[in-house]
Amino acid sequence: xxxxxxxxxxxxxxxxxxxxxxxxxxxxxxxxxxxxxxxxxxxxxxxxxxxxxxxxxxxxxxxxxxxxxxxxxxxxxxxxxxxxxxxxxxxxxxxxxxxxxxxxxxxxxxxxxxxxxxxxxxxxxxxxxxxxxxxxxxxxxxxxxxxxxxxxxxxxxxxxxxxxxxxxxxxxxxxxxxxxxxxxxxxxxxxxxxxxxxxxxxxxxxxxxxxxxxxxxxxxxxxxxxxxxxxxxxxxxxxxxxxxxxxxxxxxxxxxxxxxxxxxxxxxxxxxxxxxxxxxxxxxxxxxxxxxxxxxxxxxxxxx
Length: 304
Known about the structure:
Layout: H1 3-15, H2 18-25, H3 29-43, E1 48-49, E2 55-56, H4 58-84, H5 90-95, E3 105-111, H6 113-117, H7 121-129, E4 133-139, H8 145-151, E5 156-159, E6 168-182, H9 184-190, H10 197-202, E7 205-207, H11 214-222, E8 230-232, H12 236-244, E9 250-253, E10 263-264, E11 270-280, H13 285-297
Helix pairs in contact: 1-2, 1-3, 1-4, 2-3, 7-13
């Protein structure tokens, strides 16, 4: 297997079409297709389904994670060598002969929306301003982010899963505490006698998306028969604004209501969410740099 073949495979899967992958790699779609066909011949398996969007086959999925690890290490080696030599040679510059992604190391990481909206931005700024990393931030539910490590779509993840993904190291980051909250006007309208089971069955509830389990888990515990109306707003900041505007009650992390302007439905209805940092086990200064920034930013999380 050759690196340019592996790079073509990763680009086609990332961009979902041969045309878009060709644009990134500065090749023709035919050349990209030829590289993937050569790779498929070398491994003896079909690696992508040539549809729109392009999807990897099971064999392609198994190869992708190793491919991305090799490409990250190769790109980092090129970046380091060019830095030690004062940049690419004049002939390289004239020919345009440089590996895609070699000027900055591309590092895709994944985190949950509430982390992205609260404690993670200082780490993102530190990484971006460092000048070595081209960061790609992906978003998913904290209970699903580890799946992107398994697939190779991300090299590191903020996750609620303390079990290390194969080939990854894990370290605790801290705890985000979620509390069932609503606006004062909402409380007066829907819970004049408190959040009784009957009131919870009728009072609208805010949901982030279909993966959001915070509110329904609480209802299952305190009012298992309640099936209230649900509003879905898949944006962490706008979600809290909707709670402030009285559209519904929701589980709000302390970091998004630092002044306590929202009212708790019940002081005992809190949910601590322990977060962990999982990262590929590679000898990579770039990954170490990202990890250092994320762990430093996570110090603001309350210990739990």
